[in-house]
Amino acid sequence: MIATVWRVTGVAFSLLILLFAALLHGATPGQVAFLNSPVGDLTIGFAARTDDLTVLLLAVVGVIATCVQVYSLGYLQERPASYHALVTLFTAAMVTVVISDSLFFLLIGWEVMGACSYLLIGHYWERRDARSGAVKAFLMTRFADVGFLFGIFVLGVGAHTFRISELDPARISPGVLTTGALLLLVGVIGKSAQVPLQTWLPDAMPGPSPVSALIHAATMVAAGVFLIARLYTVFSASQTTLTVLAIVACVTMLFAALCASAAVEVKRVLAWSTVSQLAIMFSALSLGTAGGRHAALFHLVTHAAFKGLLFLCAGVLLHQVGSAALVVLRRYTRRGRLRKALRVTFVTMTVGLAALAGVPGFAGFFSKDTVIEAAWERAHDGSAIGWVVLVSVCLTAALTAFYCVRLWLWVFFRTPALAGGVDAFEEGNAELDDPDTSKLCDAPWVMLAPLVLLAVAAIALGYADGVHLNWVIGLISTALVVLGAFPAYSLWRRGADPRPVVLEREFGVDPAYHGAVVVPVRWLAKLTVAGDRDVVGAYVRAAGRAGTLASQGFRRLQTGNAQTYLTAAVIGVVALAVLAGVIGS
């Protein structure tokens, strides 16, 4: 009964967000403040605002959240009440971030999202990988949020206001502005899994697939892009911050794309893809132009559609087959069984991968071209950042096409005989050579309907803003797609899936962090425990033991013999007299 109530509540709340966005569309922008408290020269309180950016993000959050809630009705059976309650709270936290016009009000939604993500990633708490992934996500994002909190104080005190709409860079000294923007950027990097805090997002994949879709498509990781877009006047006024953002974004997009090219699990490929695509949005924002901001938001919207679609499709594979690992899925793809048995999933996932790869005609093609065009215009003006962003995005586009085609071919099509580890795996598991596929079928329509809706969006959103296509850039991006897709197809035809050790181990970042952070912290913890136990505790125990021994000694003096007491008194008097005589002489 409780689970049913929360399911209905979750779907209704998501639809309410959509209705709210529809009602606000075209309305006059405005702000409202409440619960204000004066603190010296500052006023601390809450405020909300409505404008075009608010409506846009509310629509994105409402659509993705509705699809996730409906999809979850057929997907999740374990602890549904707590799951739907947390998803609803998670969605509400993102709505709080979107409508906030107060830095402190935004901080509440920002932190509630972090807490909900910890609980949702660890939904299958009986699994060790789910528990460790949840803790890792919580610790890394909380570490970054320390900088975010200090950034709020620096900007608020420097501008004498915590209202976002009243933050005027001209009223803030350059040093304070740069410091505050960089501190906020630390929080954004952690929340959006950018280098060097990128490792938590791929390890969050043991959570339910609908949660992955919600986190990756419309909430949490997308909140970082939204925050910079909301405070764009502040960030664009600090060239140092934009330069740091460009460097982080360009390194991240290439790093994550290379990791995705070697990953062997469907959800892990998509997770690294999310990190890379977010970096493309940040690179557009780092250009510091209105065109860059528009390109970033356009790509954010299209990415929400096709990445939410892809994670829900991965959830169907996990739900119907039992594993999202490519090495296990290959037992079904020897004869293209998944493509034939899961027809709706195959078609919709093909649409999602085509949009992600930037195939012409799909939404990702138009939004990615908008980013390339904005970078080209900035580079044409002589900006070094523009050239770096342009080259990085083009290389990432080719790598994206490579891992999308690789994933599509290996999962859904008849694969040639493989050499090495995969063959050994299948030879050692003879029962996997000809699995029983009589029960293998597509998911129920309560799960497929959101896929169809998002697949339509992954195509149609490219035309929502009108087709303003630069044909030269369009031809270049198409050539990049072909350049990335051809090697993936060639390797698949030859039955080869080489994964360089450095890529398979994801550049060894996690072991490096383990050696640089985890090991020293553990030794420090052991040292602290030893110091508390053997130094501080030793003094405390010694003081207690001394008191015990003293009390035992005094107790022995209480013999009850009057002659002994008199003798001791006489000896004491004589000793005092002798001492007085010595001192007097």
Automatic annotation (TrEMBL):
Residues 38-80 form the NADH-Ubiquinone oxidoreductase (complex I) chain 5 N-terminal domain. It holds the Pfam family Proton_antipo_M. It is a multi-pass membrane protein. Residues 100-381 form the NADH:quinone oxidoreductase/Mrp antiporter transmembrane domain. It is found in: Endomembrane system; Membrane. Keywords: Membrane, Transmembrane, Transmembrane helix. The chain crosses the membrane at residues 53-74, 81-99, 105-125, 137-160, 172-190, 211-232, 244-264, 269-288, 308-329, 341-365, 385-405, 445-463, 469-489, 565-584. NCBIfam families: NDH_I_L. This is NADH-quinone oxidoreductase subunit L. It comes from Kribbella hippodromi.
